[in-house]
Design goal:
Shape: globular
Radius of gyration: 22 Å
Number of helices: 7
Structural class: alpha+beta
Length: about 325
């Protein structure tokens, strides 16, 4: 009996901008106590620098530099090996070094310090994968410097993917918070969008919320929609997921149906909710009446999947 090669299963939303995989994270190599000593002397090893959530980007690539004479600093993170030839050959080791502030000495011609939100849609597969991974693990380290059990300062281990408490010997691992995000439609196939109270301007998006302990994803869809809009939805269907490292979420995209169209915002998290036909949404966005989620978000992909294609936004005028 012949065996066939494994087939990659792509969810209905496809490969979202922040969900691309181009790095072998090397979990088997992280356990080596001398990992960074092993790769420090290799001329092929590359370093990605981050400061304040930003990294150096040149055109459409993350700037990966050689190892400096001082090495990797106090708390490097092993990001893994590249899987495909890109700006570096496949198999290149990449290490994240987080800086206290942007270092102009690292800048190269045409490069600038940029956040993931600013450049995600411009980056290729490898660079987007590295930036998402680096942003998420960097955020975790910044927020988890002390042991939650005894309060002692923890130390990074295993390539930067574990923090250990030297007092009670407990180990602490990076966390990811699951959150559902849902495109709700009614019997007329309109979509419901909400405006969060914390947002500036007339911005609308799909409803979303965190999954609570002991709760299934489907139950979270039904509960969150009811809490934020007062609607009872049914038939939640999973479409795909995307990491959202702002700071540590995994967004799980769904559709859901409702026969109840009397939506009411909760007035706390959501300030307004509106039903849109495709024509109404297209006109509202094109005229600038409302704005919708950006192209890197899973929300935009959910909206455009319902819409049937890209939604045209008004051109931003630039001064000469």
């Amino acid at each position: 009996m012949s065996s066939s090669a494994p087939v990659a299963v792509v969810p209905p939303l496809g490969l979202l901008p922040l969900a691309r995989t181009a790095v072998d994270r090397g979990s088997d190599r992280r356990v080596a106590a001398d990992l960074f000593q092993q790769i420090r002397s290799s001329p092929a090893t590359r370093v990605m620098y981050m400061a304040g959530g930003k990294t150096l980007v040149s055109s459409t690539e993350v700037v990966l530099g050689p190892v400096s004479d001082s090495g990797f600093g106090d708390a490097p993170v092993y990001l893994g090996r590249t899987l495909k030839d890109a700006q570096e050959p496949a198999g290149t080791d990449v290490v994240l070094v987080t800086l206290a502030q942007e270092d102009p000495l690292l800048e190269v011609d045409g490069a600038r310090w940029a956040s993931l939100r600013e450049v995600a849609v411009l980056l290729g597969e490898l660079d987007a994968a590295l930036f998402v991974e680096a942003a998420a693990i960097s955020n975790w380290h910044a927020a988890h410097t002390h042991c939650p059990r005894c309060g002692a300062a923890t130390v990074p281990e295993q390539g930067g993917w574990v923090r250990r408490c030297p007092e009670d010997k407990s180990q602490h691992f990076p966390r990811t918070d699951p959150a559902i995000i849902v495109a709700i439609t009614d019997p007329r196939d309109r979509i419901l969008l909400g405006s969060a109270a914390a947002w500036k301007g007339n911005r609308y998006s799909t409803l979303a919320g965190f999954v609570e302990p002991g709760e299934s994803l489907e139950a979270a869809v039904i509960r969150e929609v009811a809490e934020e809009s007062g609607l009872t939805v049914h038939s939640p269907q999973y479409l795909g997921s995307q990491p959202w490292p702002f700071p540590c979420s995994l967004m799980l995209g769904f559709t859901a149906r409702t026969e109840d169209t009397a939506a009411t915002p909760d007035g706390v998290e959501i300030s307004d909710v509106r039903w849109f036909t495709r024509e109404e949404l297209g006109e509202a966005v094109a005229s600038g009446e409302i704005t919708i989620a950006s192209g890197i978000s899973i929300a935009r992909n959910l909206i455009e999947r319902w819409y049937g294609g890209p939604i045209t936004e008004p051109e931003v005028e630039t001064q000469a």
